[in-house]
Amino acid sequence: MPSPEQLWQMIQRQQRQIEQLKQKLGETDHAVRQVAETQAEPAKGSASLPDWVNRISLSGKIEVDATHSDDLNGDWNATSNDSASDIVVSTAEVDIAAQINPWANAHVTLKYEEDADQTRIQFDAGSITLGNTEKYPLWLTVGKEVVPFGNHSSAAFSDPLTLELGETDETAAIVGWSLNGFTAQGYLFNGDSRKSGDSDNKIESFGGMLGYAGQLGSVSLDAGVGYINSIEDGKIGDTLGSGGAAGNVDAISDHIGAWNVHAVLGMAGFSLIGEYFTAAEAFQPAELTWMGRGAKPRAWNLELDYETEIGGYGTTFGLAYGGTAEALDLGQPEARWIALVNVGILDGVSLGLEWAHSEDYGTADTGARVAAGTGGDRDVATLRLAAEF
Q1: Cβ neighbours for 327, distance < 8 A, ≥ 6 positions apart
Q2: Distance from CA of residue 194 to its chain's centroid?
Q3: pLDDT in single tens digits along all 389 residues of the chain
Q4: By the 8 A CB rule, do 185 and 173 touch?
Q5: What is d(CA 253, CA 247) in angstroms, rounded to the nearest whole number?
Q6: Fewer CB atoms near the end CB (10 Å): N or C, the chain?
Q7: Closest by alpha carbon to 361, among 389, 324, 386?
Q8: What span, in angstroms and rounded, lies between the C-alpha atoms of 341 and 255?
Q9: Strand pairing partners for 357?
Q10: Dist CA 88 CA 67 (whole Å)
């Protein structure tokens, strides 16, 4: 048993240890407060940012293509043993979207495409939408957009021929109604086309579409039909040209309407795409010519895609067949077959290979801008590295 003196010494040692512990606890508490204050600073700074910053989203994609074609001069192999290869940035696109409030949003798209005609950044789209379809089915979009005419869905790198003939990009007012998967849209715009002798510059182009998108048991369905009264305001207008001469888009005899129908079915990883485009009436021979008369261009696309995983990598296989009729003057092939495989090699990054075989119109088929078909064919292989964010 320790003596009283030893007990007193033990008590003194314990007292000193207690004081040391108190001091350490005080230092720890001070450090904890400093860390908490430091961590609170960024949050405080974030909270002080304008509220609109949290309502803006940014997305985009970059596609780089390595291509090889057995047709150097675009003459459908009329010149023997000619070929071409290149590496191009086929697309660099940035989309900015802003949810201004529950009833208004806006978006802007900037795009760069490296090709023979366009090698600069361009304002591709920009619009304001008023509406909230979760609370009310009616909405309004005004601005520069591709008007709702056609679907143009495809897993292929090459644009479907229905898009090449039917896509129409205009500054328009679009009114829409959406409820239970059904959608109806109507639109107005002042296009580039002008009737010959018409000095007015006014809104007289219009169109509309009806569609449904939803699930029917185990099958997904997206189908619709659309009409536009001035298809010459779309990509066809690039062929017609401008300048006021007979046959130019700004000296056309009359607006040419067009119809589009499409359906996309999905089930168990498979997607079946069908689309058909047709002008509602023929152009005048001075505008677009087919076999000595006015052309009534048509186009179609049929595609089967399959998405699966191979070794943990998302993989898409695709086969497509497209064609046109009376589109010789538009520089389009009469038929095209496409096969492709595309693999997601990293999160947001894919590597794919596409083979496209196109056939020209026959030598007996005649136009004006293109005197006659060649009966030739063209093969193009494209290796694409793409990134999305």
Answers
A1: 161, 165, 295, 297, 298, 299, 334
A2: 29
A3: 545 454 445 545 655 655 665 565 555 555 546 645 555 555 454 555 677 788 899 999 999 999 999 986 667 766 666 789 999 999 999 999 999 999 999 999 999 988 655 567 889 999 999 999 999 999 999 999 999 999 999 999 999 999 999 999 999 999 999 999 999 999 999 998 988 877 778 899 999 999 999 999 999 999 999 999 999 999 998 888 776 676 688 888 899 999 999 999 999 999 999 999 999 999 999 999 999 999 999 999 999 999 999 999 999 999 999 999 999 999 999 999 999 999 999 999 999 999 999 999 999 999 999 999 999 999 999 999 999 99
A4: no
A5: 8
A6: N
A7: 324
A8: 41
A9: 337, 379
A10: 8
Say how far apart CA 199 and CA 252 lie, in whole Å.
12
Who contacts 187 (Cβ-Cβ below 8 Å, separation ≥6)?
147, 148, 172, 173, 174, 175, 206, 207, 208
φ, ψ for residue 164, nearest 5 deg: -60, -30
Please report where in the chains the tokens 């590597």 appear, as a residue: 351
Phi, psi of 46 (to 5 degrees): -65, -40
Q: Which residues, 6+ apart, have CB-to-CB distance to 127 below 8 Å?
A: 106, 107, 141, 142, 143, 144, 145
Among residues 278, 282, 277, 309, the alpha carbon closest in space to that of 293 is found at 282
- Can you read off the two tokens belonging to residue 83? 């070929």
Q: Which CATH architecture has domain 63-87+147-168+192-388?
A: Beta Barrel (2.40)
Contact 353, 44 (CB under 8 A): no
Any idea which residue has 């314990």 for tokens? Answer: 14
- Number of helical H runs and strand E runs in the chain: 3, 18
Q: The tokens of 11 are what?
A: 């008590």
Tokens of 372: 């006659």
Backbone angles phi, psi at 23, to 5 degrees: -65, -45
